[in-house]
Design brief:
Layout lengths: L1 H38 L6 H9 L1 H7 L2 H31 L11 H24 L5 E3 L5 E3 L10 H7 L2 E2 L12 E2 L11 H7 L12 H9 L24 H4 L19 H7 L12 H4 L15 H5 L8 E6 L4 H7 L4 E6 L6 H7 L3 E4 L13 E7 L8 H14 E15 L3 H9 L4 E9 L4 E9 L6
Parallel strand pairs: 5-6, 5-8, 6-7, 8-9
Antiparallel strand pairs: 1-2, 3-4, 9-11, 10-11
């Protein structure tokens, strides 16, 4: 009896231990499962689970459904228009069935009709459908659908080909450390879709349209940079050899070297005498007047001469940027002092860029919207005159000044030349110029009119320890 009880007690202990270990194992396994599910986001909100399991949020963020829908509708509209056109043509033929045998339509005319009114719209619709790029699966931690930026926004075939990323031909990393190359366009191009597609509508390897004014308007509206084009740029019909540099600096060039179709004046002599160009550049096509600028100290206390500026840093000013409106006179005068200056230029109702180049100087065709294409701490001098004045938004000017600070080297000079604004906002602009704590070599505020003032300054970028 005692032996039986002892055996029964041992069996109970063994069963209890097994239950204890089994329960502990279940608890541990449950905890591990809970931690695993938690690490995968299973206890987030319902939409979070959908994001993780199906990539819904990533897909909607990366895939431009609206642009794709608009593109499909454009294709459908083209097909409907083509169908209506063909139906009208058939109706006309049925009405004139008796006269078909007497038709005077020649075979070349009928072929031209088929190519222009039938085949070309059909081809455009066909290509637009083919170029729609559906999102692709990316092998990332959370499998989701990805779409290349703006790929379905534009219908024009050339724009589509331009913005499509270009994979390296050997499938390897290129010299820049990248697997593919993205061509860039300005983000505001989406706001001028119609104009941009007009600009990119051309025959490959044929002549481009004479539409530089359209291109400049797109740039000024924020579609900057523009896409490259695969057509041949037009030039003047008779381009003559430019003058040598010792002559070209102070002489109006040959007018036949410029295309004048989009200007009011048709030669440089007209611009010199009537000055119908940009209003802030009065007289800048008159080389006689231009040659007198910055040479001697004038009666205006807001004007500095070259000698005053260059004597502050003798031998140190070698390269610089002139961010102004003009015909390159500042750069021409600096060239005589062995200083190379790049001049920003826009063709504002006159061929500023062409004239600067024909004088043997370097024009930089750039808008205020764009970051300067120079590396950090490289320029000895930045000069600005009669351009960034009281019209400019304070925040835009702030971004531009920080960009200038980026490219100006320590010890470089910032020359603010006759900046003008209303007296009431002078303090706001002065704060922007002074926020960098540059060393003041010159600082002059003088009256321009009853309500406006000039500000001229010569500031030196101080070294920074970090």
């Amino acid at each position: 009896m005692l032996t039986h009880c002892t055996l029964r007690f041992k069996m109970s202990n063994i069963m209890g231990c097994l239950q204890f270990f089994t329960g502990g194992f279940v608890i541990i396994l449950s905890l591990i499962t809970i931690l695993k599910l938690s690490s995968h986001g299973f206890f987030f909100r319902h939409e979070e689970i959908c994001r993780y399991m199906y990539g819904i949020d990533e897909t909607s963020a990366a895939f431009d459904v609206k642009a794709l829908t608009e593109r499909v509708h454009e294709v459908l509209d083209k097909m409907e228009s083509l169908q209506n056109k063909l139906e009208l043509a058939v109706e006309d033929m049925e009405k004139a069935e008796d006269d078909l045998s007497k038709s005077t339509v020649s075979k070349p005319e009928f072929t031209k009709y088929l190519k222009k009114d039938v085949m070309e719209p059909l081809y455009q619709a066909h290509m637009a459908l083919r170029e729609i790029q559906l999102p692709r699966f990316e092998a990332v931690e959370n499998t989701s659908l990805m779409e290349d930026p703006l790929i379905n926004y534009f219908v024009n075939e050339e724009i589509h080909k331009y913005i499509t990323p270009k994979k390296n031909r050997n499938g390897k990393i290129n010299m820049f450390g990248k697997e593919d190359v993205y061509n860039t366009i300005g983000h505001a191009c989406v706001l001028v879709k119609k104009e941009l597609e007009e600009y990119m509508d051309y025959d490959i390897s044929s002549y481009c349209n004479d539409d530089w004014n359209l291109a400049q308007d797109l740039m000024l509206r924020g579609c900057d940079p523009l896409p490259r084009r695969r057509c041949l740029t037009r030039a003047s019909k008779l381009y003559l050899r430019p003058d040598p540099i010792n002559v070209s600096l102070w002489k109006l060039p040959e007018s036949r070297n410029v295309r004048w179709s989009n200007y009011k004046c048709k030669n440089f002599e007209c611009l010199s005498s009537k000055n119908p160009g940009y209003s802030r550049c009065n007289g800048c096509f008159d080389m006689g007047k231009e040659k007198l600028k910055w040479v001697n100290k004038t009666s205006s206390s807001a004007e500095f001469s070259f000698a005053e500026v260059l004597d502050i840093k003798p031998g140190e000013i070698r390269i610089g940027l002139d961010y102004s409106v003009g015909t390159g006179t500042f750069a021409a005068r600096m060239r005589e002092h062995n200083v190379t200056i790049i001049t920003t230029a826009l063709n504002l109702r006159a061929p500023f860029s062409e004239l600067i180049a024909l004088r043997g100087l370097l024009p930089l065709y750039i808008t205020p919207n764009q970051r300067l294409p120079f590396f950090d701490n490289t320029m000895d001098l930045i000069h600005t005159n009669m351009f960034l004045d009281g019209w400019i938004d304070l925040l835009l000017l702030d971004f531009m000044l920080f960009d200038w600070d980026r490219v100006l080297r320590p010890g470089g000079l910032l020359w603010i030349d006759k900046f003008y604004c209303d007296r009431s906002v002078l303090d706001d602009y002065m704060y922007l110029f002074l926020q960098f704590r540059y060393k003041k070599h010159k600082w002059v505020v003088s009256p321009k009119s009853k309500d406006e003032v000039y500000l001229s300054a010569l500031l030196e970028k101080t070294p920074r320890s970090l």
